[in-house]
Amino acid sequence: MPVKVGIVGYRGYSGAELVRILQRHTGVEPLLLEHRADNGPSSGLIRDDGPPVLPCDAEIVAKEGISLVFLATPPEASMELAPALLGVNCRVVDLSGAFRLRTPENYAAWYKATHTQPELLAEAAYGLPEFCRERIPGARLVSNPGCYPTAANLAIRPLIEANLVDRAAGIVCDAKSGVSGAGRKASLTTSFCEVTENFSAYSILKHRHVPEVLLTSGLEESEFSFTAQLIPVDRGILETIYFRTVGVKSAEELVGIYQRRYQNEPFVRLYHPGRVPDLHAVAHTNFCDIGVVFDPATDRAVVVSAIDNLVKGAAGQAVQNMNLMLGFAETEGLL
Amino acid sequence: MPVKVGIVGYRGYSGAELVRILQRHTGVEPLLLEHRADNGPSSGLIRDDGPPVLPCDAEIVAKEGISLVFLATPPEASMELAPALLGVNCRVVDLSGAFRLRTPENYAAWYKATHTQPELLAEAAYGLPEFCRERIPGARLVSNPGCYPTAANLAIRPLIEANLVDRAAGIVCDAKSGVSGAGRKASLTTSFCEVTENFSAYSILKHRHVPEVLLTSGLEESEFSFTAQLIPVDRGILETIYFRTVGVKSAEELVGIYQRRYQNEPFVRLYHPGRVPDLHAVAHTNFCDIGVVFDPATDRAVVVSAIDNLVKGAAGQAVQNMNLMLGFAETEGLL
Amino acid sequence: MPVKVGIVGYRGYSGAELVRILQRHTGVEPLLLEHRADNGPSSGLIRDDGPPVLPCDAEIVAKEGISLVFLATPPEASMELAPALLGVNCRVVDLSGAFRLRTPENYAAWYKATHTQPELLAEAAYGLPEFCRERIPGARLVSNPGCYPTAANLAIRPLIEANLVDRAAGIVCDAKSGVSGAGRKASLTTSFCEVTENFSAYSILKHRHVPEVLLTSGLEESEFSFTAQLIPVDRGILETIYFRTVGVKSAEELVGIYQRRYQNEPFVRLYHPGRVPDLHAVAHTNFCDIGVVFDPATDRAVVVSAIDNLVKGAAGQAVQNMNLMLGFAETEGLL
Amino acid sequence: MPVKVGIVGYRGYSGAELVRILQRHTGVEPLLLEHRADNGPSSGLIRDDGPPVLPCDAEIVAKEGISLVFLATPPEASMELAPALLGVNCRVVDLSGAFRLRTPENYAAWYKATHTQPELLAEAAYGLPEFCRERIPGARLVSNPGCYPTAANLAIRPLIEANLVDRAAGIVCDAKSGVSGAGRKASLTTSFCEVTENFSAYSILKHRHVPEVLLTSGLEESEFSFTAQLIPVDRGILETIYFRTVGVKSAEELVGIYQRRYQNEPFVRLYHPGRVPDLHAVAHTNFCDIGVVFDPATDRAVVVSAIDNLVKGAAGQAVQNMNLMLGFAETEGLL
Fold first, then answer.
1. ipTM rounded to 2 decimals
2. Do C232 and B232 touch (CB under 8 A)?
3. CATH number of A148-308
4. CA separation (Å) from B99 to B78, B102, B114, B143, D33?
């Protein structure tokens, strides 16, 4: 019998992607949980075969026997909903930034807001399975990583672990994201005419995803320069990462570091030295693709890391976490 | 000495296009008139060389000696501003739909709103110079045509005048527009992720631009089927027009009708029989390009009409009207 | 044990979509058949988990026990490969236009080329399951319909069968297609800078897909005006179809015609009267979505029909045909 | 009487932009010089008002009295045509990479080809007016800079001159370009379906524009990491430049360096500290826009530099050079 799981925020881009993935999953039955009063425009279809819709209410969640709820909501809504759901023994995967930064002080510094659930913040497991797989199966609350940090950490942390980076010279991460990363809402900034035939940088050096990279990679803020940029595509993140190496002789050696680190990881794919991924390689997949270019004469290295921001950067990774929490194969519904 | 002209709504797409065109015009000095309190984000440029900004106030307009004001505003704002400006002897070119339909009843039927200025509605000259050039020079208030009707009427009216269309079979006008036609505003419908990789029809058979086509072409509503459609481009309108001919022997004959009608028109360009324009042909120009495909064996004809919705469909045509009103060469600033 | 199926032309857009769908299919094992010498650029991935590649050779196909081959090739290649494959008792689903038009004369008239396999042309079953389901299971050679005719016939034929269309006034089908419909090849016409911010009509009244619509719908060429148009999107076809009705009282009545005709069809979806699909509704699905707008006062009707050109318009429908030929559930791999 | 100037390669994107600009220029009469036999498809327009077309032949150029020719051609064609034109006392602005690198050895190293005109290579003046204005007026042959180096050098060289950069840590230049930078040609790489919804890096660390940056800025190759990337837009280059400062206290100080350096430059625009340009700010203009973000606590700086690759990155800068060579105002035709 399938396990019942709920989705709050199913009309957003990440939420809709969750619905698509969970409908392919053989072990769960998705239910849509309506949080906001306004229930939006219908599809117009006479026979609309989507999952059933219920009010997002802890009592109803309990009565329906929903085991796990995905929160594809803004941080404020997640801080409100998570304790209520946990209170009826429903586990939670939160896709917002509410539970990613460990301390209320760090949250306040980067999100410019007070954290209302400091105990849950301390308790939450960070859901980047490639580096935090141990805590996820037993967690009540898993905090799904940000899209930018997912692509950054999978590319950077193995290099830091292997002690190959000239940290004094710093790491530059020039990140580009499709517009769906900004969420589904009316906004002049993300309107078609403002975005098409354009390319723009924002939150230079100060993006709220930066501290997630620092926490996972072990870098200091002074060692990590990050720029987020909006590209005129619907989905996809590509990060071009620059650094200088210490004691590296060849591109093969750098690729080898990744190969060893990720040999058992189903969702990280590597490229031959000198080859790098583009967005098409990862669109609509849960893969993070990584490629390396290296100039041994000058120790300059460039790593390109690409994901689909709505899949490995949001809904796909959330289902990967759910699979670990509920005991399914980690790849179920995701290949 | 240049003539002073004002622009209300200069932050919108049509308004910004007006500013660009008027800055190239050798006979006028443009001034920006701030109508709404919120004055929006600045460009960030240290030295911003745009025209000066004044409050949009009839007294100030009079004191500054502004001869003519363009209203690139919604119909409600135009109905409010036009009488005040005319009251201080300032002439007006209105780019909204407020003054296009001649009677309050027709306006109410298509705009679903009450017209508050019926006398001005009766007085306004319709600013499609190719067909209404006589009344424009002396008019106090010129109503700039809608973008869809401009492309439609320039293609259809010569055929109706020449009595070549099988009106009983009807004319189909399948119209496609870039997103800037919807104006500059926050809206989910025109957000990048909703529009990119999409194509959608709206206001099928009931678009508020339909009555403008009927008034200018002389067609009955039952003879004219019109669909507006949104394409993922910034600017441009292309209309594919289908009809059956009566007594036409060749495509050359059809093209000849247009050639004779438009031989002295600087802004209508014609194509060799069998060739048709695309959007690139007219982008950033004030041209309306028209091409004809005809099958003499079955009397089926297809006419393609293309304009830039922000130029010939809005700001360019408004300047063309201004040129006629102020006695400049009709093409000044527009070639 | 899975049935082995081969794909020729797997690097093209339709071929790559076939591979994606067949990898999800639980009953078949896909194999890639290399037809051209040049084997193209590799992905760069160190571990590339695609299906195995074999030379496209009838003997090898026989030896490997491949039951069915998809030809995602140009008509000339299909005319060459089909007889060789049928000769070793391998069944064929051809995605090209080679076997769609029944007679060599009709083929010559629309494709401007000689048909080299007139017997196979006569034998081939037309693979539009919603109208030709009977002949497909037993066919050796199934000709997969064109993308435009699929969307057109599913919208038009029920109306013609029900005798509701004023055929004397004619039907207009204004069709728009994403660029992938032109195939994967170097071409200035489909290069990014020529297509972006553009919209262009081609093959007006004379597109080679027209005779497929006539054959399936029963319309005469004089009754059907068709324009194909290129939109700046990757995938999707939307057709806006105009006609006048005879004896119809309401939009509900028109929608009801479709509901009865398609009540058991898994891949046709209908909209409430007055609502119509857009491309996003069908992207990456095998659905054909149909919506109706009707003005009972003037008998004018507009039907919008939308498909994904690479799925229901090519690879998805080809798998639907394969499912019928090999005895799988018709929807296997396609929901 | 206007000066006659010729354009070779007028069908390419840079060439067509040259034609547009020169038609607005009050002091020259443009003529199109047909270099290749195939003269391409016509526009279809019955009355095509473009400049006259002549064969590209030195004798004809001399006879017509053409004073200056723009070569919007590949390097091989430029190396062939430049000596012939100079031989008839016609001056040349070359938009290719043929004459940018000063020595045949450097050319061979980066262009992987033999330079056939080493004397002209030594003679050519590098046409970046903001830094090389002195030599341009008297030059017979001006080599128009590459698009990427124009944006890079205008942003980097003032910082190097002012000795503010920690060169040991290196400068990273993450560059993004619209597709028109690849030229107008049939190519799978630049076809719509490969580019749309994609983002891809190429020539990482090894782009042939790198040596131009080194020559102008004075940086060593080991100090400069450059990646070129293709974005799904028609036109525009945006470069995000990362470095660490030495002895800088504020963003204002960094912006001040640029303000002093460029106070008399008509085509460089600066932003308030913390603000940066996007592509829309410079589209269809000859401006290079520069903005600075700085973190004084960690000495990390990010500079964003944006141009229109077809204007300041090609045709506009070529006309700017022509204006200097022929004694026109530097901004004529360009504002």
1. 0.96
2. yes
3. 3.30.360.10
4. 9, 7, 12, 6, 50
